[in-house]
User: Fold this.
Amino acid sequence: MKQPASVTAIVHGTALLNRALVADAVILLRHGRIEEAGPAKRVRIPPGAQLIDATGCYVVPGFVDIHIHGSGGHRAEDGAPGMARHVVKAGTTWFLPTLMSNELGQMLVAIDHVRSCAGVVPGGATIGGIHLEGPFLNPKYGAQRPESNIEPDPESVRKLIERCGPTLKLVTIAPERKGALAAIRAFRAAGATVSIGHSDATEPEYLAGRAAGITHATHLFNAMPPRVWPTKQTYLGTKTVGIEELILADDDVSADIMADATAAHVQPTLLKLALKCKAVGKLSLITDAMVAAGLPCGEYTLADGQSLITTPAEDVARRADGALCGSVLSMCGALGNFIKHTAAPLETVLTMVSEAPARAVGIFDHKGSLDAGKDADVVLLDRELAVRQVLIAGKIEFTKSPDTP
Ligand SMILES: [Zn+2]
Assistant:
């Protein structure tokens, strides 16, 4: 006789279901998928099910990080499996190792690395594919070496697409660069989401980029033109529309944003503005974390050889000259920071670490919520929003030790 399939039931927790928090929920997991989820009075637990008691916990979809350069001493360029095993401890179950602008040959080697380890990582989060944050950025913005940001010539675009193959999931590009529109169309045709970022596109350039296939915006308010006083003192009666206003007013474009503890990347008012402008499911949190995330403060090296410095005063990373250069955040940390800065409801902010990023990169059909049929990537958070336990494809991959505060 065949053994009955093993079923796991997560019981007594408060679960995020259909964007709402439901008390005393039951989530049934079978064959690595969510079989059923709902209030305890509606879901029958099969006899013999293995029970996970989530009393006092929130039961939420695994976090999806679409922008992360490194973590726990590992870099996307050469240590993606190490990142996977580090980020899972803070609730990330699926992520895109993100390659920064670098000399093209170096980027191709890094692509080979991520491609070779994409997929399930034992004891870690799933490596979902590649995010190319460059090399077709505007060199005026961001902490990469300016000379690494090249024009999107067809040959470079073709090489990147070919080397990534099906692992290419997200590309950040500045649409004002010469040749960018053809590149955007090529990346779309290769199946990637294309995102505007590190850019000072004018309205016509923005609209041309959108028409070519841009559907997302990378770290809204960062690596975009700074606010400057008008040079002429004449009051002209109008405010200039820039890339941020174009993104905020565009209902059909999604965006991601950074929430660090000291709001060094994005001020609380701008976090609130983004939340007001973007519908639920259209605004994601990212970590943009660097190699130093989760390590003692000090000096570290980026993939392009630049130094990066972290201090106890903040959870961001800076170059030696003080320029912002990503963060040392976890997704769980970003979640808590965003709530602290905006007082937004927990159920809304939970969608920003699960549903919204999953939608942005086209994986919401199998990730990003606890709907029946989806992959059983589940996080248990305690009342302080610290990660208690993480399941990936129904398997427990991390449990916080009872001794850890
Ligand atoms: Zn960036």
Q: What stands out?
A: Residues 133, 142, 198, 219, 223 surround zinc ion (CB under 6 Å). The chain has two domains: 7-59+372-399, 63-360. The CA atoms of residues 9 and 51 lie 5 Å apart. The first strand starts at residue 7 and ends at 17.
